[in-house]
Every structure is written in C-alpha cells, then in structure tokens.
Amino acid sequence: MSLLGVLGGMGPMATATFYRDLVRRTPARSDQEHIPVVIWSDGRVPDRSEALLGHGPSPLPQLVEGVKQLQAMGADLMAMPCNTAHAFLPGLRRATGADFVDIVRATVAATIERHPETRHVGVLGTRGTRIARLYETACSEVGLAVIQPTEHDQSALVDEAIRLVKGGGRLDHATRLVEQATRSLAAAGADVAVAACTEIPLAIGRATEVLPIVDSVECLADACIEACAPRCSTTTR
Amino acid sequence: MSLLGVLGGMGPMATATFYRDLVRRTPARSDQEHIPVVIWSDGRVPDRSEALLGHGPSPLPQLVEGVKQLQAMGADLMAMPCNTAHAFLPGLRRATGADFVDIVRATVAATIERHPETRHVGVLGTRGTRIARLYETACSEVGLAVIQPTEHDQSALVDEAIRLVKGGGRLDHATRLVEQATRSLAAAGADVAVAACTEIPLAIGRATEVLPIVDSVECLADACIEACAPRCSTTTR
Asked: In CATH, what class is A104-216?
C-alpha cells in the first residue's frame, strides 16, 4: 500500500482543507480503508510568490528538505497543496527523485472533464503562479486559452483575498473580492474559473453563480485518490 | 520552535477536523506564524475498542512505531486526536519517552473552565474509553462525577453514531442518534456532555440545545496551542 506524503503549510488552512477533502472523497467504509498519509506542514517555507518576483529567498531548499523528510517516513507519492510551489516542481523532482501528483495538471484535466465545452479558462491564483505561467503552460498543452485578471484585479482583489484567508480573518470580505474578480473574468470571456490558489476555495461564496469554479484543492485530492487506488485496497469513485 | 507531532488516522476525518481546528484557533496572521506540524495518519492501526474489549490485537506496537516516526522527524510534543487511544498512553509514554498533550485531561479542564457549576459530566465516547474508565479517572481527580449512557444507549446510539461517522455516510442519522443519547444523559442528571470520541463532534447537530457540549477535538487543539505558545513565536488567545 502506498504512503502519500503531503508537503503542506503553504498555507496551513489549505493543507487542512486538502486533507479533509481527501478523506471525504475517499470511498472508504472504515478507518482501515483510508489512504495512509504523512503530512509535513511547516508554514515557515519562504513565500513562493515573493521568491518568483525576485523579492525574497527561494523556498526550494526547504521544499527539498520537506520532501526528504517525507521520503524518510516512507512516502512514495507526494502532493503539495499549493499551486505556486509548483513553479519549483522541476527542481524538486530533480533534487529528490520523488513522484508528485501535479495540482496544476490535475486541475486542468478536471476542468476539461467536467466542462468539455471550455475554451477560455479564467485563473484566480497568486502573482507567483501567474509569473511562472503554470496554468498557461498546462492549458496550452490541451488547447485551452488562459484569461488572467487585469493588473488591478490581481492586486486589489485576488492577492488581497489570499492575504485575508492566510491571515485567518475577514473571510466575508475575501469572498466579496473573489466574487468581483470572477465577474471580471466572465466579462473578459472566461467560460470557467479555476480556484488556482489553495486559499481561494475558502472564499468562493457566490462566485459559482457567476461562472463554474473548478477547485484545485478538490482536484488534487481526487487525483491523489486515483493515483493511490491501484496501490491501495481502496477503490476510486 | 516546537514541532507538534500528530498521531492520527483514528479516524482520518477526526484527524482532519483536529488539524483544521488547530489552524483556525491559532492566532496567526500569516503562514509563518502557524505551529509547525507533522501528521502521521495511518488508519490501519488496530481498533482501540476491540483491543480493550479483548476482541482484537493491541494497537500499542503501531502507536509506538508512529510516535517513533514522528520523533525521527523532530517532533518534540505529541497529540493523538483519539480519546480511546489514550488508554494506551502510559505504555506509549514508557516506550517512547515522548511528551503528550492528553486529550482527556484537556477536555475535563476545559469543561471546568467553561462550565464551573458542573457536577455531573455525561460522556459520549466509545466502549473502549468507557471500559478503560478514562473520563472516570480524569474527572475524579477534579471532583466531578461521570454519567455514562445506559448499556442500550451506548450500543444502539453512541457506538452506532461513531460507526456511521467513520463509514463516511448517513451523518444525518448519526446526528439524530447523538441527540437522543444526549437527551438520555440530561434525563440521568448530566449538567454537561463531553464529545469524548473524536468522531462525535462531526454529528453533534442540535444536541447543544439539550446540554452544553464540550468538544474534545477543540479542547485538544486549544491545549496544543497553549503548550506550543512558550516555544513558538505565536501568542495564544
């Protein structure tokens, strides 16, 4: 049976939400049927967006250290419930040789599966995810176009909502900002919006009335359940 | 800074709830201010109640192994979001030398703090917690009396509700069973009921209209935050 390693803490609430989604979405009837998981959740990993903007230290050394700790515990498959950290995935794979479930590819695959008519994908993510062009790359591989928020919306709505969720306060205000950003993406031609930062699903609110929202945390959980299925006694949905 | 080790998986949803409560109740304003945590969540630990009833293998060897894994990761303080597993706490402390936050004592202490007039504590827990007299021992230390459900209620209401929560289905039915068990405890003279199994808080429903309910998962989270405060940069509530 596989042991899933979760490199968490980016942020801690996103890790908690991911683990809850993983448990909730696993078709188990007893404790013993759930996927064995080890979670390394250290919020002290340097800010991923700051690093990608060239304003702070790289988180890569601490990410590598976290994965090595998980490998030492016996984890043979890794998940990182942080979209932005996936900018460092190539380096992380090279340094550790670990097998990862990729949250960005899992989210794009689920978008196509759930909304096959999609042409334009709106992205509600961090500035780091945007600079690293994570969704642009994954979407172009499957023929989808990406619509990013305007510079104003990114800064005043999306970045601010993420900051509020991480700060643990004013979720109601964060929710209004995400709703507003989603309306702008719809006006710009998006058919679907992806909650492309693991903090965004905590502030979706009524944005789902504006556009279908694909939640990257849920998509990562589903992809992990599927990836563990052949190795586990658990069957997938 | 302290690294909190969580021996989880008993059950997985209780572990997810505990971690969410820990994050939500920590007064942090950024990822970096949260308590660093490593969670070992393996649902394959043998059933604690079955072992205490003499019907199954002891979970102690796997619990010891889990704690040793957490110690190897650098965890210097342990939490187990499973009341019943605390029957094995003396053996676990002896085998590992680890420092634990005790969920039973944390819950009894919070009961007194929040409801100082309490004399009789109703216990909604597993059969294993009951046989091991975990709440009887902790309550007698502080002069409180325990009221357990009748044999019928334990089996038909409490055990069944826990089984339904662990199975991930029919939470609405589990909630009705917990409400009914709480009404019986109130009729038997309980001033307060403790949700003394980490699955019970997931099925509380309107039981709080019958008696004040003290949630052992929240109490464990608060005690961990308090225990980590002097070691962490985080300040407690």
From this structure: alpha beta
